[in-house]
C-alpha cells in the first residue's frame, strides 16, 4: 500500500505493478478502474504502462535475458512486474522520462517485503538498460509474437499479413460500436465513421466509454466489427426463436434482439450474466436469460436458430488483449478444441430440423475453425454446411473462402479504416430436415 509520504507517481506505479503481476500469473487483463485509481490522469498513465509492457512482452523478454546475468530471482515478489513496467517506460515511452522510471521502480520494490532486498539489483539493471535503450529500441518486430504462433500464422496468412499483425499489436484496437438505430447525428457526435452494417468506429476519444454520447441512453454497445458478423449471418424470419450460447457479456444477444428474434441468452457464469442483464437493461432489450452449462443444456422446445460463440484461445483478440499471445499453448488450444466439439454436439440436439446453427470463435487457429467444420461434418451427420456468400459481407473482400467459411484477421481493413479488426472464424450450418 502507498503511504502518505510516498513520492508523486508511486501510487499508480504500485497499482500498475499489481495488475501486471496478476496478468503475468495468468489472469485476463482488464484496465484499472476509477475505484482503483480515482485520478483520471493517473489511471490513464498506469494503464498505458501496463498495456505497453504487455504489447512489448516478447521484446522485454529479450531485454531481461540480456540484463539479468543469473536470470529472474526466485521468490522475488513484484520484482518482475516492476521491472517490465520500467523497461517499457525507458525504451518505448521515452516521453515519460528516464529518471522517474528508475526512481519509482526502486521505491516500488522497497514497498514490497518480498522484493525489497532486490532494490540494488533493480537500480543496477535499469541503469544498464538506460545505457542500452537505443539498441533495445531497434529490436526486431518478430520478437513481438511467440515463435510457435508466428510460424503457424505465416503459413496460414502469409508473411505480409503477420507483419501487419505486429503493427496492430503495437497500435492496439480502435473502439467499434454497434448502433441500436441508424442515427447520423449520433455518429457525428461520436466522431465515428461507418464501417459495415450498423457498426461504426471511433478512432480516438478523450473520455471513458461510458461518458461518450448515447451510452446512458442505450443507443449503442461496444463490439468489434468482426464480432458483429456472426449474428448477421443467421438470416431467419422475425419472431424466430434463437438460442445464444455462451452469450455474456451480450453483444450478440443485443444484435439478435435488435433483429426481432425471440432470444434466449445462456451462459454458465453468473457474474458475466449479471453484466449481460445490465447491458440489456441499458439497451432496452429483454431476452430470456438462462444460467446453465451449454454442453448439457436440454431445452423443452427446440430452437429455430442457434448462435454458438464458443470458448476459444481468443488469439484473434490480441490487439485488445495482448496477454493471450503468451498465455496460450498447444495443450491449452487442444483442450478448447475438445470443449468446442462438446458444445457443437449439444447445440445440434437443441436445434429444430431445418434450423440454422452459427459456429464462431475469436481465434486465428485453424484447429478451432476450419478443422472444426470438417470434424462436425464427419461426426455429426445431421449437420450440413450452409455456405456464406461473399455478397453477404460487403466491404470485406477475401473474408469468405471458396467453401463459404468466414475468416477475418487483424490485417484486414473494414471499409476505409486502417484500424484492422479482430481475428474471427464463422461457419453456418443447417440441421437436415
UniProtKB/TrEMBL annotation:
Active-site residues per Swiss-Prot or TrEMBL entry: 362 (nucleophile)
Xref: CDD domains: AdoMet_MTases
Domain of life where this protein originates: Bacteria
InterPro entries: MeTrfase_RsmB-F_NOP2_cat (IPR049560), MeTrfase_RsmB-F_NOP2_dom (IPR001678), NusB-like_sf (IPR035926), NusB_RsmB_TIM44 (IPR006027), RCMT (IPR023267), SAM-dependent_MTases_sf (IPR029063)
Key word Cytoplasm present: no
GO terms (BP aspect): methylation
Domain SAM-dependent MTase RsmB/NOP-type: 153-432
Alphabetical keyword list: Methyltransferase, RNA-binding, S-adenosyl-L-methionine, Transferase
UniProt-annotated binding residues for S-adenosyl-L-methionine: 246-252, 267, 293, 309
GO MF entries: methyltransferase activity
SUPFAM superfamilies for this protein: NusB-like, S-adenosyl-L-methionine-dependent methyltransferases
Record has Methyltransferase as a keyword: yes
Family, similarity comment: Belongs to the class I-like SAM-binding methyltransferase superfamily. RsmB/NOP family.
Record's protein name: RsmB/NOP family class I SAM-dependent RNA methyltransferase
Source organism of the structure: Devosia rhizoryzae
Amino acid at each position: 500500500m502507498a503511504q502518505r509520504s510516498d513520492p508523486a507517481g508511486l501510487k499508480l506505479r504500485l497499482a500498475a505493478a499489481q495488475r501486471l503481476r496478476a496478468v503475468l500469473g495468468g489472469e485476463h487483463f482488464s484496465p484499472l478502474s476509477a475505484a482503483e485509481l480515482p485520478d483520471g490522469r493517473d489511471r490513464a498513465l498506469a494503464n498505458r504502462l501496463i498495456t505497453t509492457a504487455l504489447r512489448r512482452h516478447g521484446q522485454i523478454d529479450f531485454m531481461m535475458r540480456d540484463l539479468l546475468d543469473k536470470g529472474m530471482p526466485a521468490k522475488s515478489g513484484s520484482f518482475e512486474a516492476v521491472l517490465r513496467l520500467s523497461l517499457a517506460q525507458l525504451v518505448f515511452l521515452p516521453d515519460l522520462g528516464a529518471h522517474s522510471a528508475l526512481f519509482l521502480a526502486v521505491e516500488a520494490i522497497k514497498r514490497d517485503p518480498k522484493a525489497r532486498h532486490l532494490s540494488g539489483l533493480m537500480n543496477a539493471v535499469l541503469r544498464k538498460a538506460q545505457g542500452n535503450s537505443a539498441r533495445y529500441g531497434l529490436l526486431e518486430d518478430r520478437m513481438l509474437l511467440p515463435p510457435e504462433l508466428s510460424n503457424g500464422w505465416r503459413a496460414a496468412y502469409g508473411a505480409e499479413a503477420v507483419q501487419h499483425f505486429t503493427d496492430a499489436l503495437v497500435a492496439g484496437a480502435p473502439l467499434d460500436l454497434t448502433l441500436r438505430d441508424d442515427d447520423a447525428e449520433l455518429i457525428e457526435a461520436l466522431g465515428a465513421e461507418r464501417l459495415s452494417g450498423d457498426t461504426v468506429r471511433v478512432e480516438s476519444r478523450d473520455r471513458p466509454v461510458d461518458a461518450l454520447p448515447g451510452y446512458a441512453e442505450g443507443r449503442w454497445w461496444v463490439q468489434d466489427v468482426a464480432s458483429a458478423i456472426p449474428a448477421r449471418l443467421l438470416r431467419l424470419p422475425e419472431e424466430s426463436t434463437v438460442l445464444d450460447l455462451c452469450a455474456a457479456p451480450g453483444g450478440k444477444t443485443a444484435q439478435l434482439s435488435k433483429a426481432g428474434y425471440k432470444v434466449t441468452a445462456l451462459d454458465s457464469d453468473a457474474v458475466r450474466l449479471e453484466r449481460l442483464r445490465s447491458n440489456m437493461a441499458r439497451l432496452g432489450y429483454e431476452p430470456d436469460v438462462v444460467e446453465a452449462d451449454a454442453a448439457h443444456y436440454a431445452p423443452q422446445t427446440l430452437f429455430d436458430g442457434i448462435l454458438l460463440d464458443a470458448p476459444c484461445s481468443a488469439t484473434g483478440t490480441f490487439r485488445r488483449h495482448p496477454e493471450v499471445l503468451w498465455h496460450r499453448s498447444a495443450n491449452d488450444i487442444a483442450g478448447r478444441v475438445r470443449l468446442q466439439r462438446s458444445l457443437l454436439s449439444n447445440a445440434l440436439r437443441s436445434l429444430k430440423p431445418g434450423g440454422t446453427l452459427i459456429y464462431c470463435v475469436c481465434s486465428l487457429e485453424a484447429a478451432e475453425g476450419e478443422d472444426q467444420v470438417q470434424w462436425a461434418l464427419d461426426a455429426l451427420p445431421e449437420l450440413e454446411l450452409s455456405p456464406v456468400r461473399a455478397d453477404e459481407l460487403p466491404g470485406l473482400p477475401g473474408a469468405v473462402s471458396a467453401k463459404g467459411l468466414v475468416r477475418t484477421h487483424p490485417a484486414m481493413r473494414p471499409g476505409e479504416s486502417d484500424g484492422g479488426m479482430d481475428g474471427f472464424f464463422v461457419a453456418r450450418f443447417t440441421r437436415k430436415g
